[in-house]
Each structure stands twice: as C-alpha cells, then as structure tokens.
C-alpha cells in the first residue's frame, strides 16, 4: 500500500484530501510545515508527496527543492498561483505535476494515481545501460543514473524521459510523443513542459548543457538521444 504525505497548513484541506485518499486505498501522513515535510521524507517511507506552495515557514518551491536533494519521490504541487511562470518554476524545482486551487479532491486522487502508474511503468529495461565508456550509466534495477560514478538526482519524470530517449537512441521524438510516454494521455498542460524537463536533465548529466551530447534537440521536431552505448 502506497503512503502519501499531504503537506498543507490548512487542516480543512488536509482532512478532505486525506479522506479521499484513504477511500481510494492509500495510507496517509500529514505535515503542516515545510520543515516537518522534509523531516518526514528523510525519516519515513514516503511514496508520494502532495505539497502546498504556501506554507508558514518556507515556500513550497524551497521544500520541493530540498526534497529533491534527498529523494526522487513524486511530488504534486497545490497552489492558488495561476501564472504559467509559477508552473514552470515549480516544474524546474522538480515537481511532477501542478494543480490549481480550488480543486476537486477526486482530481487530486486521479492525478496521484496517474503519476504513480507512470512511475511504475518504467521499472523495465535492460539491467544496465552505459554510454561513452561508462561516463553515463542508467541502472534500471536501482532506478538510478550515474555520471562519472556519481549518482544523479533526477525526478521521476526526468528519469522516465531520459529512459524513453535512451531506450531508442537516434530516434526522433516529438514533444507530443514524449508527453504521452512520460506524462500520460491525461496530461492537459503545454507540451513545452517537456522542454523544461530536458533543460533540467541536461544540467544534471551534460558536461556542457549548452552543447549537449546526450539529449540533442531536433529542430522543428523534438529530441533524440545521441549517446552511444559501450
């Protein structure tokens, strides 16, 4: 049974979300502050985080960034902020999805299910893929990526995007194809979200993100993986 951490300083919102999650078969734990959320992720077995952006002790983006430094657990952000810049900022910090308040709690559960389903679908691949004499390694058993022997902290969606591309080297993928494979058919955001994920991955795996050798832009189409296996 999956355990969901619900982070919100409004008890009424937590109560409603928790109620619907429990009805759908999830276990839940709660946090009122960002520091408490980070502590729970560090010390407990958490499978998913629902994170409000407006917290009393720190901004949700800061909490998301702190969690990403210690764990690749999927994160769904909740916010009253409606601008596209806020959404992009949240995704760049490592969030997997973004839901605007007020929301239907049934949609929260549906988003959680969809993200977990996509995460589970990418537990398959050859045990290990290595590129450029082991400079970049994708270990599917550990679901971990290494660059120069050091672990790379990718979000679940970043890992899945890299995996899709690396499994099909030299194949051109359009943004819409990548949205379907990584974010799911039910994703209703802009396909340019893929660009932000690619930018994040490049910052983490490329020696020179401005001149990438792994994830290459195919102008007018999308992206392809150019690294050769060794």
TrEMBL record:
Span of domain Response regulatory: 3-116
GO CC aspect terms: cytosol; protein-DNA complex
InterPro entries xrefs: CheY-like_superfamily (IPR011006), OmpR/PhoB-type_DNA-bd (IPR001867), Sig_transdc_resp-reg_receiver (IPR001789), WalR-like (IPR039420), WH-like_DNA-bd_sf (IPR036388)
Keyword DNA-binding appears in the UniProt entry: yes
Positions where 4-aspartylphosphate occurs in the chain: 52
GO biological process: regulation of DNA-templated transcription
DNA-binding region positions on the chain: 126-227
OmpR/PhoB-type domain span: 126-227
Keyword terms: DNA-binding, Phosphoprotein, Transcription, Transcription regulation, Two-component regulatory system
CDD domains linked to this entry: trans_reg_C
Superkingdom classification of source: Bacteria
Subcellular location, record wording: Cytoplasm
Gene Ontology MF annotations: phosphorelay response regulator activity; transcription cis-regulatory region binding
Protein name per the record: Response regulator
Species this protein is from: Paenibacillus validus
Native organism taxonomy: Bacteria, Bacillati, Bacillota, Bacilli, Bacillales
């Amino acid at each position: 049974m999956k355990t969901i951490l619900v982070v919100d300083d409004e008890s009424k919102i937590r109560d409603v979300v928790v109620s619907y999650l429990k009805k759908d078969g999830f276990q839940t734990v709660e946090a009122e502050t960002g520091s408490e959320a980070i502590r729970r992720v560090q010390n407990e077995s958490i499978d998913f985080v629902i994170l409000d952006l407006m917290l009393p002790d720190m901004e949700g983006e800061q909490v998301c960034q702190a969690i990403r430094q210690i764990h690749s657990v999927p994160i769904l952000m909740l916010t009253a902020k409606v601008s596209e810049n806020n959404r992009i900022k949240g995704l760049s910090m490592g969030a997997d999805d973004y839901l605007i308040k007020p929301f239907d709690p049934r949609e929260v559960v549906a988003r959680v299910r969809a993200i977990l389903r996509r995460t589970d679908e990418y537990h398959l691949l050859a045990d290990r893929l290595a590129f450029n004499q082991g400079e970049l390694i994708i270990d599917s058993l550990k679901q971990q990526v290494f660059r120069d022997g050091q672990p790379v902290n990718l979000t679940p969606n970043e890992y899945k995007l890299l995996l899709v591309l690396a499994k099909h080297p030299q194949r051109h993928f359009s943004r819409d194809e990548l949205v379907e494979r990584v974010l799911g058919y039910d994703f209703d955001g802009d396909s340019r979200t893929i660009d932000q994920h690619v930018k994040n991955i490049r910052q983490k795996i490329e020696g020179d993100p401005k001149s990438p050798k792994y994830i290459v832009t195919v102008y007018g189409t999308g992206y392809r993986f150019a690294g050769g296996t060794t």
